[in-house]
Amino acid sequence: MTVSVNMGTDGNGTAVGVDLEELLATRLLVQGNSGSGKSHLLRRLLERSAGHVQQIVIDPEGDFVTLAGPHGHVVIEAGDYSEREIARIATRLREHRTSAVLSLEGLEVEGQMRCAASFLSALFDAPREHWYPVLVVVDEAQMFAPVTGGEVSEEVRRASLAAMTNLMCRGRKRGLAGVIATQRLAKLAKNVAAEASNFLMGRTFLDIDMARAADLLGMERRQAEAIRDLQRGTFMALGPAVSRRPITVKIGDVATSARSGSPKLTPLPSAAPMDLQDLLSEPVVDAPELGLLFDSRPRRVPAEELLDGIARPPEPRTAAPPPPEKTDDEVEAVYADVFRAIVEDPESTLRPPSVLFQDFQVRCRMGGLAKPPLDLPGFVRRLSCARAGIFDMTDEAWTAALDVASGLPDDMLGAFLLVARAAREGEPCPSDARIAATYGTSSIGRVKRLIGYIESRELIVCRTDLAGKRSITIPGLGWTTLPAEAA
C-alpha cells in the first residue's frame, strides 16, 4: 500500500507529498535554526501519517503530548519511571503497536540522554516477531547524538550515541525508521546524520551549517546562501521519498499545537516607578496555612497500570454529532457581521493579517461556523473589501470589481475597492487620507505612488479639473466618482 503524506506546497503551489513507505526505508533528517519551523514540520508529518503507521516520539520539551487527544498517543512522563521500567514500556509498545510520546520534560540533560538511550535500545532489541514498521521521531537530535560530550559523562554520551546510531544505521531491518530533527548539523554526529537519505533543510545562518546542508542537498557552495534566505516554515527538500531534485516546500497547517509557543510582546505595567518601588520593598507576609485542597501536579501513573493500558485495546470513541450545516446566505451573514466587527475595532489597523485571521476564526466559531472555509489568502481579500466598506459579497457588481482587480496585490485591493464603491454609488472621490487609512499607511507619498501604479495597470483613469478637484474613472466597469479635493 502506497501512502503519500501531504506536507505542503512548492513554489508553484503544487502539493508536495512524502512517500511513507519510501520514508520508512530511507529515513529523514530535518535541520533548521530555532524558530525555523522544525517542530511544525514534524507535527504535520505525525498528524498526516497517524492512521497509517505506529509512531514513537522522543520529545525533550513535552511539546508533542498534545497528539494524545485527537490521535490516541500514549504519553509517557519519563521522570516518573526508572530506567528498567522505561525499557519495559518500550518493549510493550512494540509488541502492541501503540503510538506514544516519551516526554523528557523536567529531566536534566544527562537524565534525558540516559532515558532516551534505554528507551531506544529497548525498541531496537525487541523480539523479531515484533519488528513492525514504526516511525521514530527524535526532536533536538544533537542532544542525543552529540559530536562531543560537553557537560555529561562519557558513559552517558556513549550510550546515547550508540542508541541513535543503531536507530539510524541498523534500525531499518527491525522496522525502525528514524526521523531526526536538529538545530545545528555541526553539533550532530556525522555517522548518525549520514544514514538519512531524505533531507528537509530550513533556515540557518552559520557558514559551517549552511555548507553541510548544501553538501547534503547536492548544491554548490555558492548556492548555500539560499538556505539563509528561507522563510519560517519553508524548507528545501531532497530525497527518494520527496523529490529527486531539490525543491522548496512551504509546510502546511496543523490541527494540534504545542503547549509552548513563541514569546509575544505584552505591555509593561503602567504604574508609576515610585509605586512599583514601594510595592517591591513591602515586607513579605506569609499566607496563612489553609491546608492542601487539591494536588495540582499530574497524577503519576504506576508502571504496571501504564503497561496494562498499552496492552488493552482502546475503547471505541463516539464522535459528537456535527452541528447543522448553514446555508450559503447564513454563512455570508456571519461573515458580514464578523468583518464589520473587526473593521470597527480601531486597533485592527495596527495588527498583521495573520493575527486578525485568528480573531476571525474565533468570531466565526462564536457565530456558529465550526470551521470557516476561508483560508488566510481568502481572508486577506475579504478584509480588504471590508475596509473599503463592502460587506455583502453576494452582489454581482462587486464580483465584477474583484475580477477587474484580480491582477493587483492583496494589500492594494482595499484602496481600489474604496474608489470603486464611491464611483458606483456616485459619491465624491475619496481623499488621499481615506485611501491611506485603507492602505494601512500614513504617508501621502505612498498613496500617490499607489494611485500611479494602479493607473499604470490601466485599471483606473485619474482626472483633475481646473478647480483642482480629482475624479477617478474605472473603465472596466464604467463607473466614475464625483470630483473632490484630493487633500
UniProtKB/TrEMBL annotation:
Q: Which InterPro entries match?
A: ATPase_Atu1862_pred, HerA-like, HerA_central, P-loop_NTPase
Q: Does the keyword ATP-binding apply?
A: yes
Whether Nucleotide-binding counts among this entry's keywords is: yes
| Listed GO MF terms | ATP binding
What Pfam families would the database entry show?
A: DUF87 (PF01935)
Where the record annotates domain Helicase HerA central, the positions are 10-76
Annotated region Disordered: the residues are 307-328
Q: Which Gene3D superfamilies is this protein grouped with?
A: P-loop containing nucleotide triphosphate hydrolases (3.40.50.300)
Which keywords does the record carry? ATP-binding, Nucleotide-binding
UniProt protein name: ATP-binding protein
The taxonomic lineage of its organism, from the top, reads: Bacteria, Pseudomonadati, Pseudomonadota, Alphaproteobacteria, Sphingomonadales
